[in-house]
Amino acid sequence: QVQLDESGGGLVQPGGSLRLSCAASGSTSGYFAMAWFRQAPGKEREFVAAVWRDGSTTYADSVKGRFTISRDNAKNTVYLQMNSLKPDDTAVYYCAAGRVLSLRPEVWDNWGQGTQVTVSS
Question: Can you tell me the distance from the alpha carbon of 19 to that of 23, in angstroms, rounded to the nearest whole number?
Answer without folding.
Answer: 13
